[in-house]
Design goal:
elongated, about 130 residues, about 70% helix
């Protein structure tokens, strides 16, 4: 009977999971950066225009928020990258992910920004830590 059959849960290969994690991380970092650009642009253009139109120069104080925007971006981006690195290390340690093969596979993808990928992959050590 169909109701009595047990369905097996198929575990995805570690390499495929690592590739998916990397691509999602790069998409997340891109989205964060795009949001930063929009926020900085609106602030840098909008506040001076408001100051000119309303003759209220106190609007220009809002430009002091620009470094805070960049700082928040750096913190969030660092968290995203650390979470990615931790996941890749977990796959390497628990599921025998071959990091060299991951690097080779990812560098073959031409649509991934090469500099971003190179810097992310530089954080990975090729082998498991010895205990």
């Amino acid at each position: 009977m169909i109701g009595n059959e047990r369905t097996k849960t198929v575990e995805r290969p570690a390499l495929l999971e690592a590739i998916d994690t990397t691509l999602r991380t790069i998409e997340s970092r891109t989205r964060l950066y795009r949001n930063l650009v929009v926020l900085v642009s609106l602030t840098a253009l909008g506040l001076p225009m408001m100051a000119l139109l309303l003759h209220q120069w106190t609007f220009l104080i809002g430009l002091l928020a620009l470094p805070a925007y960049v700082g928040a971006f750096l913190v969030l981006d660092g968290r995203v990258v650390r979470a990615w690195r931790d996941e890749i290390c977990r796959l390497r340690n628990q599921r025998e992910l071959n990091v060299a093969q991951l690097k080779e596979t990812l560098t073959a993808f031409r649509y991934i920004p090469a500099a971003t990928l190179r810097e992310m992959l530089a954080m990975l050590s090729p082998e498991k830590p010895r205990t």
